[in-house]
Amino acid sequence: MQVRAAVLRRMAAERPYTESHPLTIETLELAEPGPGEVQLKIAAASLSHFDLSVVDGNRPRPLPIALGHEAAAIVEAVGEGVFEFEPGDHVVTAFVPSCGRCAQCRNGRPALCEPGNAANDNGELLGGGRRLRDADGQPVNHQLGVSAFAERAVVSVHSCIPIPKQVPLTLAALFGSAVLTGAGAVLNAGRPTPGSTLAVIGCGGVGLNAVMAGRLAGCREIVAIDVTPDKLELAKSLGATRFFNARATEIVEAVREATGGGLDLVVETAGSLPALELAYQITARGGTTVTAGLAAPDSALTVNQVQLVAEERTLKGAYVGSCVPVRDVPRFLALQEAGLMPVEQLIDREIGLDELNDALERLASGAALRQVVVFDRHS
Ligand SMILES: NC(=O)c1ccc[n+]([C@@H]2O[C@H](COP(=O)([O-])OP(=O)(O)OC[C@H]3O[C@@H](n4cnc5c(N)ncnc54)[C@H](O)[C@@H]3O)[C@@H](O)[C@H]2O)c1
């Protein structure tokens, strides 16, 4: 079957992306779903910094690659041995397919699935190999087992999280990555107690979900830190109580002083070393620093060992928000439906596939939050 899809053939194109056009919309050949696979009709796929970091070369992936990983879709066909889904079911895509059998999956940590992450690193599906070919018959890599900036995708059944049919699919798309990552970093990795204090560094699509989760967890103080004033405004409307520009001089001293010596929990969702350094420095004695942002692979934090010990600090990473997606996607969707997690406020634009380069530029410039490719409407 032929599908239109956004393909990246060269990383680190010069900006503005509106002129260099790093993504090309190509017609690809999509294979039928094999055993344990599902064919999805993509309804909506949102653009995340995770996608941008492949485009800008910050997090290299095998090329050419069909991008897009944060999506909601309708099941169109199932391969042999798939009993969990039938055509017409609605799903959110999980960007780490979890095999359910490896040591990490058995320990309840599907984000760390060994074969799932190996397949993602290779640009393959969990079952091995690629299901996309270009006009010359050459294989095209999958992004994170999904490749959702496409009219249709074939994915592992382990990349699909069922959702109720009444959930709007444009909204649902965000739950596969931004919501799991941001809310999970607070609720699953940070686990703040009611009345404790939280700071979120980087108030984009991921970070604002962390702010909302902090409010849900009963944090009495939620400090929002970003480099863009608009993001801080939105953080305020979602529950943040104090605001700092990360570029302000003596920011560490200012935050520590305003918060009586730092925060119990600091969550870094900017994806840069300076942001993680700041996060660690404004964490209080006995506190926890969680990093969910994805910096360049060679980025390295220097930690004072004595301080780590004598102040009983905790420093931890959170991938996919340390979530169990089949548990947490329905949980967060229910919170949104109850009006307790207004994720819908993070969608600032609906676009067509052809507008992705413009959307990339807006995201890179800090002007955008979640821009969602909506297929039936624009393509
Ligand atoms: N851990 C995971 O499983 C996971 C999943 C998805 C995305 N991510 C990563 O999370 C990060 C955030 O993704 P997003 O889609 O929300 O990106 P985004 O671009 O929407 O948001 C990033 C925010 O950080 C701000 N920022 C940049 N530098 C800063 C600094 N030094 N200090 C404070 N704020 C700063 C930007 O202004 C922006 O508001 C990215 O690095 C992305 O790759 C991680």
Could you characterize the architecture of this molecule?
By secondary structure, the chain is an alpha/beta fold. The chain has two domains: 2-176 and 342-378, Medium-chain alcohol dehydrogenases, catalytic domain (Quinone Oxidoreductase, Chain A, domain 1), CATH 3.90.180.10; 179-319, Rossmann fold, CATH 3.40.50. Helices cover 29% and strands 26% of the residues. It is built from 14 helices and 18 strands. The protein has helices at residues 17-20, 49-55, 103-106, 114-122, 169-172, 178-190, 205-216, 229-237, 251-258, 273-281, 305-310, 325-337, 356-364, 375-378; strands at 2-8, 23-30, 37-47, 65-66, 70-78, 90-93, 132-133, 139-142, 152-156, 160-163, 197-201, 221-226, 242-245, 263-268, 283-291, 314-317, 347-351, 370-374. The strands form three sheets. Strands 3, 5, 6, 9, 10, 17 and 18 form a seven-stranded mixed beta sheet that branches. It has a six-stranded parallel beta sheet with strand order 13-12-11-14-15-16, with helices on both faces. It has a five-stranded mixed barrel with strand order 1-2-7-8-4. α10 (273-281) links the parallel β14 and β15 (283-291). α6 packs across α7.
List the topology elements:
Elements lengths: L1 E7 L8 H4 L2 E8 L6 E11 L1 H7 L9 E2 L3 E9 L11 E4 L9 H4 L7 H9 L9 E2 L5 E4 L9 E5 L3 E4 L5 H4 L5 H13 L6 E5 L3 H12 L4 E6 L2 H9 L4 E4 L5 H8 L4 E6 L4 H9 L1 E9 L13 H6 L3 E4 L7 H13 L9 E5 L4 H9 L5 E5 H4 L1
Parallel strand pairs: 4-8, 11-12, 11-14, 12-13, 14-15, 15-16, 17-18
Antiparallel strand pairs: 1-2, 1-4, 2-7, 3-5, 3-9, 3-18, 5-6, 6-10, 7-8
